[in-house]
Amino acid sequence: xxxxxGIIASLxxxxxxxxxxxxxxxxxxxxxxxxxxxxxxxxxxRTYEGVGATKAAMRLQDxxxxxxxxxxxxEKGREVPVRMTDDGIWQDGGVALLDFENATGxxxxxxxxxxxxxxxxxxxxxxxxxFDLGVPMALNHQDPTMAKAPLNVSALSWPxxxxxxxxxxxxxxxxxxxxxxxxxxxxxxxTDCGEGPMRAPPSAPCSTQNRPTYRFEAFNAASxxxxxxxxxxxxxxxxxxxxxxxxAGCMSGPNDDDCVGVMRRVGLPFRNQAAKAQAWVRVE
Length: 284
What we know:
- By secondary structure, the protein is mainly beta.
- Helices cover 10% and strands 31% of the residues.
- Strand 7 and strand 8 form a beta hairpin.
- The radius of gyration is 23 Å and the shape is globular.
């Protein structure tokens, strides 16, 4: 019996060694986002007052943004990547599309919405959140008609050389009274992408990526939400006027006066001015 017990113990040890060290289990995480105008949730068909430098009125038309490189911050301050769950609709390849419009009222997108990023991280305790606003450079220059969801929406992209719109935010200002602009858009994406055909990737990376990183030292995914505040983003901007001979709003071009306040509050450098701390995304 003693020899048999010894043999069993030896076999058990061999099996444990062959199996290697125990692998830590994963835990699922859901990160919630919300679009607001100040303290009010943004919704299609509703008018919001007191927006921008001139305290004008606006109505939502579109609010869709891409996020990527999502990380949680552990108790030692280390950034741990969230392995996004590919669902074939909103998330794939580490990119997620957040969609806050439902095609009702004055909105011009589609009925489906999404306000979460879902994925997995190693089991543990986490105290913060980091994410990039936009599409990663490696995926940013492709034909959206051939791409997999969520990068297959042509309305959220420019020609391939410029890439995707990291943000597609459109508002109607026709309720603002007498003004020069009937609408205002915030389309942030890469610029300075070199010469060449528009429907082909750039020969070198765009020199201005316009992909800000946001880090929150205190964030609890179980109880808190990341709020994208459009009123805060537009606080320095007069949404009722538009720079002559340019598209309505900010299209990321370095010569567009309508981008000055927007880029500052997004937290991006603009016109040789260093980036300031972002002033439109918060945790609640």
